[in-house]
Each structure stands twice: as structure tokens, then as C-alpha cells.
Backbone:
């Protein structure tokens, strides 16, 4: 039986698989193997460093030296082929050591070590590394309304003041200053007086990690300065500085563009030509993201390639010899790299241009893939952490795909004499049309190949799937080079003739208007783009492994057929769909309380995978709450929110809902009646957004219940009927909070919003019943009657969504004491999000820290646990009597005025 099966497998492989395999040897590309080994080592350094600590660097260097010795020994024995393996191992181990050293090892004089306990006053001196730029506005309804613009620049610190003396120091820092950008040139020496702090680590799964980025860029400090009065210019840049004149040229170029283009197009022109995207309106930037054309705004290899190709064509048209033309192109592209900032795609493209120019000067042919590998090696030596950057990954992936497509497509050459005669007989217009058609077809095929290869990575890292990009990229492809050419000629001619500069400025303005119109129309196409949770990591890795295996093992003629790639993509998509369909749902109830600062955002996933979100907002900018909530939902694999509950009309509980409606499919929004009676502009914005998205808004009150799924139910316990009319006569929003009980698997979760004051006393007196997990009212403040509600519900876990206030320790003790010493009291704060899994057997709590979920120890259980007894009638009467004679509780605004949140502890550095 076994021999027959083996025979059948051999027969099938010989008949179907072997004919598809490559028979010719692969071309010799040694730098590709070196780049892969170095990238593998730099990638492994992050995990090895976390597991083994800083000693990984020393061990890596020692192992690399040993592998190098093995390579030399084998080479001396004439074993060249075998010697290649220890050589690659040495490169990989060197990558491990170098990546660990750059990510984990810092000077003991780094000023960041002084900010371990939080923000601290500091005075430093240093050199400006990057001139000030305007930060995107973070304000919004429900947040600070009178906050002005802020600026950001980078410095390299060399001195710190301790008392009245200056002492040597080191470290890079990001300086955030209140106010519009000042004229501060790169290379200038400054003194900065402000508050220093460390960048915050990611508090939620899937969220951008500022701490990791700071370590990757070796800038561990953030200096917050109230105004430019805290920044003093000590000296200008040195005379030999190259960055300073390039900075002045960048400022002059921005001013020149503003004088020759329409004001609405100046931000787009600055982004396209100079890489200055900070002034672009958010709505316009969102359109470019939605249509998959954001690469137009980010100075990348496309821009460098267009500059190099256009300049080389111009010089050759002026009959400049090849070698001199290549030298000029190399110099100009290098200066352009400094002008727009040395980001990874720009450096990669500039290195490729330099290699090509060197090949022209030496009259040598260039192996493009080998040149790309050389650029990767240089970048990994310069910035080893770029191996984790999605921008660097997409940059190299796109270039590699374009190189492969260029080789796979047939050359447009006419060799047959009769076809040559027919070609010569065509009219110039027909020749132009045929040539343009061929060029557009090539562009469409190349764009489709790049989109197909990069779509899984974009969906996984940016949660965006944009098929409309296949069309709109072809439409704007001729417009972008036209706008760049006119813009650069406008800048060059402005020195000589303002009239000529105005002509070309008008041409640049018209091309940019066409680009803007095409992107806006494409962004409004229904189904043109969608937000997705993204595929699993194993699926993404498998996709690129499949592409690499196809390039290595399939016949060359098969690689040039679109059907080959369509079959591979379809087959792997089926694998992903099948694995998703057979995945068993998580048993029980899963609750994730997101860390959103002073705010609330809770994701509830039922046993059958249905989703309920309770509140989504924070005090301050809604974008921060939206990023946190979207990250949590996508990390849980959720794309549809069946029910979104807004507890009450305080903006710190719902100011992110409007943006979540754009990214997720929401079934309905559930609110108390008092929410609709609110006169808040933020409430009006949410209702308008719901109407635009077609999401129904329904009201609920005590006594209502609904099925989340067949195994999970939600019950509304508060507000009582008629509370909406009370809100109209001036009752506090907090007292009308919608309290929800979620029940599944014999467990109970109680969500209380900002319930406080008289309403909370009535709720406690109504005997709400015991629960397993209580989300503390009003972010765990002292106004939430911690002793009373804990005694009435006797939870196993008490979770507060908010920051630690001054009175949090006594509130924590009150909760724990009232719960009989059984309940454990937790708070999100800056410690990280909390996840609670409730099954019939047990309740498990995890906290998100250090990039992953870490299970917390269960609370101690006494030997004779006291039963959960609900208040009897006498106790209810006593509570109600106390309610009548008690003083009114302080409102949330009074409490915040007494204990304001420490906003300085949150770095204002956007990804």
C-alpha cells in the first residue's frame, strides 16, 4: 500500500510539477545572499535581545568571529562552496550583534535616564539636527478648544545643567514647543529649558509604539517647552555645514511655491517636491491614504528616479557626454536627498542612482537586484531597525517587483522585415498612439503587480485595502512627473525670471489640481477602499515565502504570465479563508478595557464572536482615542461592531465614535434618552456622522434587554424610565449614564459609565446583584461611592478605565475593603490595557505590557469566602434615607478642576 502511494505521488509530480520547475541555474547574485543574512540577523536581534538582554551583542560578535574563522579555515582548504555557509552565518550573527547594540545599548550620560519617574524640569544645550516643523493639530470637539499650534524639532544634547554648573551629557531629543515654527537652522547651537520625559510605550495591542521608535532612532527623550521663550539661540551653524544651506534652500523653495501657486495647492506642492507634509489638510491626506496614492506625498524612490531620469535626459539632449552627465546626476540626487530629508526610500533610491552612475562612468553593466541588495546592506548598517519598518519593506518590495516585471515583460522590438516596413509606413500620430498605449499597458501591469505583492503587507500594517488604487495610480502617473517638472523649473527660473517662474508655476498648479481632483473622486467611489483587520502574521509571511519560492523554482516563461500569479494569489487566499472558517470561537466572554488615558473604551466579544463596544472616547484629542480603540478592535480580528453603546453625553466617552464609524461596520448605536436631549455640539457631530453612515441610533432604559448572540445577553439597568425628561430640566449627564449588564457562561460583567451622585445611590439601593467583573463608575474616582457599589455587587475583579489620580490609593483600598478582601482592583492608566476572559470554569485577567498580553495572578481567596448577599429591605431603606439627607455630590467638572490630568506625561509626538 505504501509503495503504491509513493508511486502515485512520483507519477503526479513527474507529470504536473516537474514540467513547471526551473531547469536553468539561477544567476549569481552574491550580495542578495549577504543582504538576506544581514536582514535576518537584524530582525532576530529584537527577540534575542529581549530574551537574553544586552549580553546578546557581545555573544553575537564572538560567534561572528568564530564563524569567520571557520570560513577562513574552509577557504584555506579549498572548500569554496562549503565556506560560503559559515560566511553567511558570520554576517547573520554580526547583524544580531549590531541590531542589539543599536537598540539596547546607550550611553550612561544619556539625559533620558533622569526621566524614569516622569516629567522633570531640565535645561540642556545641544545642536539642532532637524529644523522646526508644524505638528498636525490634535484639537477637536470634546477636547481643548483654545490650544494653539505646536512645533517640533530635533537636537543632539551635549550638556545638561545640574544646579549652577554645566556637565557633559549625550542623547538625542525631540523638542515640542508651543507655537508656530521659528526660523531655526540645522546646525545651530541652542539652549532649551523645559520638562523632560520618556516616550510612552504602546498601552494597547496593535497601537503605535513610541518607545520602540525612540529606541530605534536612538532618541530616548522628549522635551516639552511652553513657548519659544524657552529656546535660546546660542550660535549659528558652522561655516562648513552642508545641512544649513540646504535648510535655507528648503525654506526659500517653500516661500517661492507659495507665491506662484494657488493657496489651496501649496501644501500639496510642498509635499510633492519638498517632502513637507505637515501643512497638508487632514481631509486631503485621508483621501490619498484611502486611494493607495499616499506614496505621492512621501518623497520616495519615485521622486528621486524622476529627478535623475529627467536630468539625465536633459543633459544628453544638450550633448553632454555620458560620464559627465552621470556625475552631475549623482551630485544632484545626493543634494536632493539632503534637501528632502534622508528617509529610507530616498536613501535607497539615491544609492541605486549612484550605482547606476558609477556603472556608466566605468562602462560596466549593472545587475539591478545586486544593486538593490547593496542598498539594503548599506541601510541595515546605517539603521538596522529599518528591517521592521513598513515603509522600508514596501520600498524594497516595490522596487524588486518592478525589476521582475521589467524582465518578464516582452521587449517591444520589431525584428521581422515586413513588420518593420509596416511600422515605417505608419503616420506619426498612429506611432504616438501605439507607443502611448504600450506605455500605459506596461504601467498598468507594473502597478497591478506592485499592488498585488504589497496588498497583504498594507492590509496587515495599515489596515487598508484599496483596489481603487489600481486605477487611480495609472490616471495620475503622467500628472505627477508633469507637476514635478513644472515645479522644479518654476523654482530654478525664479532666480532669473519671475515671469517664466509664473508660467511654470501655473503649469504645476494645473497638474496638481488634476491630481487632487482624481484622488478626491476616487476616494468617494463606493467600495473603492475599505478598512480591514488585516491577515494574520503567518499568512503574510507565507505569502511572501510563496512569492520567493515561485521566483526561485518556477520556469522563467511561467513567471511572465499573469495567470501564474493569479493562481498563486487565489490559492493562498483560499488557504487564509479556510483557516479562518475552521477557527473555533473563543469560549466564554472576552472583555478588553483599552488604555485611553482619562476616558473609556471597552470591547466585548461574545462566545460566538459578536462584538459590543461600550464607549469610545477620551479627554482631549479624539484621534488618540480612535487610534487606541481601532488598534484594539483590529488586534482582536474585529471588523464589525454589532452594537455600540454610548453611556452618556460626556465627550470623553464618545468623541472617537464618529471616526470609528468610518473604519468599522457598525450595526447600531445604543444611547440613553438623555443623550439625544443634549445640546452639545459633539453630540450633534456624532448623530450627523451616524446619519451619513446609515447607522441607526436607538435609545434604551432600565428594563430593556437584548441578545448579543444566542449565548450572551445584555440587560440595561439604568437610567430608569423618564430620565430623558429629567435631563431636559438640567440634571447632570453623569447621573443618566447607561448601565449595562452583560451575561454569558454563567458570568456577569457590569458596565457603569460615569454614574455618580444621587443616581448612583439609587442604583446601589435597587440591589443590582452580584457580578464577576465591575468596571468602576466615573473612572474610579472618589465620587463613585466605591464602598457602596463594591458591597452591593461584590465583584471578583474591579477595573477602572482612567489615569491614577491623587486619591486613587484610598479609592483602591475602599473598593478592596468593601468587596470583602476578595476583589482585585486594577486600573488601565499608563500601565496598559486589561483583558478579561470569563468562562464557566474561571476568570482570567491579562495586562498588555512589553508588546504582549501577560496574565496576572488571580486574587487571593479566603479559606471561607463570604457569600454574595444582596441588600435586604432594611438596608435599602437605610440607603434611601441617607440619600435624602446627603449633600449633593460634586460634578465631574469640579473634580477635574481640583485634580487635573497630567497631560505633560503624554508625549505629543505623532507617528
Residues:
Amino acid at each position: 500500500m505504501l509503495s503504491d502511494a509513493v508511486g502515485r505521488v512520483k507519477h503526479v509530480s513527474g507529470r504536473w510539477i516537474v514540467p513547471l520547475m526551473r531547469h536553468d541555474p539561477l544567476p549569481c547574485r552574491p550580495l542578495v545572499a549577504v543582504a538576506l543574512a544581514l536582514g535576518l540577523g537584524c530582525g532576530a536581534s529584537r527577540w534575542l535581545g529581549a530574551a537574553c538582554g544586552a549580553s546578546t551583542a557581545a555573544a553575537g560578535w564572538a560567534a561572528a568571529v568564530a564563524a569567520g574563522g571557520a570560513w577562513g579555515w574552509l577557504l584555506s582548504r579549498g572548500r569554496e562552496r562549503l565556506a560560503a555557509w559559515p560566511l553567511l552565518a558570520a554576517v547573520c550573527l554580526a547583524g544580531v550583534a549590531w541590531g542589539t547594540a543599536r537598540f539596547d545599548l546607550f550611553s550612561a550620560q544619556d539625559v533620558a535616564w533622569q526621566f524614569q519617574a516622569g516629567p522633570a524640569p531640565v535645561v540642556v544645550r545641544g545642536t539642532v539636527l532637524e529644523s522646526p516643523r508644524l505638528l498636525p493639530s490634535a484639537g477637536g470637539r470634546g477636547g481643548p478648544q483654545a490650544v494653539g499650534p505646536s512645533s517640533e524639532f530635533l537636537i543632539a544634547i551635549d550638556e545638561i545643567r545640574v544646579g549652577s554648573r554645566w556637565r557633559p551629557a549625550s542623547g538625542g531629543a525631540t523638542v515640542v514647543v508651543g507655537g508656530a515654527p521659528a526660523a531655526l537652522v540645522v546646525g545651530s547651537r541652542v539652549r532649551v529649558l523645559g520638562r523632560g520625559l520618556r516616550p510612552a510605550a504602546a498601552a494597547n495591542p496593535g497601537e503605535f509604539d513610541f518607545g520602540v521608535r525612540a529606541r530605534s532612532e536612538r532618541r530616548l527623550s522628549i522635551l516639552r517647552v511652553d513657548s519659544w521663550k524657552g529656546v535660546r539661540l546660542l550660535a549659528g551653524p558652522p561655516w562648513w555645514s552642508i545641512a544649513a544651506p540646504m535648510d535655507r534652500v528648503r525654506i526659500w523653495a517653500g516661500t517661492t511655491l507659495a507665491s506662484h501657486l494657488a493657496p489651496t495647492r501649496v501644501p500639496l506642492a510642498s509635499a510633492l517636491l519638498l517632502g513637507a507634509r505637515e501643512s497638508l489638510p487632514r481631509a486631503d491626506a485621508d483621501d490619498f491614504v484611502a486611494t493607495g496614492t499616499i506614496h505621492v506625498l512621501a518623497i520616495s524612490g519615485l521622486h528621486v528616479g524622476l529627478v535623475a531620469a529627467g536630468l539625465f535626459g536633459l543633459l544628453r539632449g544638450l550633448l553632454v557626454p555620458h560620464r559627465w552627465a552621470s556625475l552631475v546626476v549623482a551630485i544632484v540626487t545626493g543634494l536632493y536627498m539632503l534637501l528632502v530629508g534622508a528617509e529610507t526610500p530616498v536613501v535607497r533610491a539615491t544609492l541605486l542612482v549612484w550605482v547606476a552612475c558609477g556603472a556608466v562612468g566605468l562602462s560596466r553593466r549593472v545587475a539591478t537586484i545586486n544593486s538593490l541588495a547593496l542598498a539594503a546592506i548599506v541601510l541595515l548598517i546605517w539603521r538596522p531597525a529599518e528591517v521592521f519598518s513598513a515603509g522600508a519593506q514596501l520600498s524594497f518590495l516595490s522596487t524588486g517587483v518592478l525589476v521582475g516585471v521589467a524582465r518578464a515583460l516582452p521587449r517591444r522590438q520589431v525584428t521581422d522585415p515586413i513588420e518593420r516596413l509596416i511600422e515605417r509606413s505608419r503616420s506619426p500620430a498612429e506611432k504616438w498612439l501605439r507607443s502611448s498605449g504600450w506605455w500605459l499597458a506596461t504601467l498598468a501591469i507594473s502597478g497591478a503587480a506592485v499592488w498585488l505583492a504589497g496588498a497583504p503587507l498594507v492590509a496587515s500594517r495599515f489596515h487598508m485595502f484599496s483596489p481603487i488604487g489600481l486605477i487611480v495610480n495609472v490616471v495620475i502617473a503622467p500628472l505627477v512627473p508633469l507637476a514635478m517638472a513644472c515645479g522644479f523649473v518654476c523654482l530654478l527660473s525664479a532666480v532669473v525670471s519671475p515671469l517664466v517662474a509664473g508660467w511654470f508655476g501655473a503649469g504645476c498648479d494645473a497638474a496638481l489640481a488634476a491630481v487632487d481632483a482624481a484622488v478626491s473622486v476616487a476616494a468617494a467611489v463606493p467600495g473603492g477602499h475599505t478598512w480591514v483587520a488585516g491577515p494574520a502574521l503567518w499568512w503574510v509571511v507565507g505569502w511572501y515565502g510563496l512569492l520567493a519560492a515561485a521566483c526561485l523554482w518556477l520556469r522563467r516563461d511561467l513567471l511572465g504570465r499573469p495567470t501564474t500569479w493569479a493562481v498563486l494569489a487565489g490559492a493562498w487566499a483560499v488557504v487564509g479563508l479556510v483557516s479562518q472558517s475552521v477557527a473555533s470561537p473563543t469560549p466564554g466572554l472576552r472583555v478588553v478595557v483599552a488604555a485611553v488615558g482619562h476616558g473609556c473604551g471597552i470591547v466585548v466579544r461574545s462566545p460566538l464572536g459578536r462584538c459590543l463596544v461600550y464607549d469610545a472616547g477620551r479627554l482631549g484629542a479624539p484621534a488618540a482615542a480612535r487610534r487606541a480603540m481601532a488598534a484594539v478592535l483590529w488586534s482582536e480580528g474585529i471588523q464589525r461592531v454589532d452594537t455600540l453603546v454610548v453611556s452618556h453625553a460626556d465627550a470623553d466617552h464618545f468623541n472617537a465614535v464618529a471616526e470609528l464609524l468610518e473604519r468599522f461596520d457598525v450595526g447600531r448605536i445604543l444611547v440613553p434618552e438623555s443623550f439625544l436631549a443634549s445640546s452639545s455640539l459633539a453630540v450633534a457631530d456624532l448623530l450627523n456622522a451616524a446619519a451619513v453612515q446609515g447607522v441607526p441610533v436607538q435609545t434604551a432604559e432600565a428594563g430593556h434587554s437584548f441578545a448579543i448572540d444566542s449565548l450572551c445577553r445584555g440587560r440595561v439597568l439604568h437610567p430608569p424610565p423618564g430620565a430623558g425628561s429629567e435631563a431636559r430640566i438640567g440634571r447632570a449627564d453623569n447621573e443618566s449614564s447607561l448601565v449595562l449588564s452583560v451575561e454569558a457562561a454563567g458570568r456577569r460583567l457590569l458596565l457603569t459609565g460615569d454614574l455618580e451622585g444621587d443616581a448612583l445611590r439609587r442604583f446601589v439601593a435597587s440591589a443590582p446583584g452580584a457580578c464577576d467583573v465591575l468596571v468602576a463608575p466615573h473612572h474610579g474616582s472618589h465620587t463613585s461611592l466605591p464602598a457602596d457599589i463594591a458591597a452591593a455587587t461584590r465583584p471578583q475583579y474591579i477595573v477602572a478605565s482612567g489615569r491614577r489620580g491623587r486619591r486613587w490609593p484610598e479609592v483602591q483600598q475602599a473598593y478592596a475593603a468593601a468587596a470583602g478582601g476578595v476583589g482585585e482592583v486594577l486600573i488601565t492608566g499608563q500601565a496598559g490595557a486589561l483583558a478579561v476572559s470569563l468562562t464557566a470554569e474561571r476568570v482570567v485577567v491579562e495586562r498588555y505590557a512589553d508588546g504582549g498580553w501577560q496574565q496576572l495572578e488571580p486574587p487571593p481567596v479566603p479559606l471561607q469566602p463570604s457569600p454574595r448577599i444582596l441588600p435586604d429591605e432594611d438596608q435599602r431603606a437605610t440607603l434611601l434615607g441617607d440619600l435624602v439627607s446627603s449633600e449633593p455630590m460634586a460634578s465631574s467638572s469640579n473634580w477635574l478642576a481640583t485634580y487635573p490630568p497630567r497631560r505633560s506625561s503624554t508625549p505629543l509626538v505623532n507617528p
Remarks:
- DSSP finds 31 helices and 27 strands in the chain.
- The chain has five domains: 31-104, 111-241, 248-408+427-531, 537-582, 589-861+871-898.
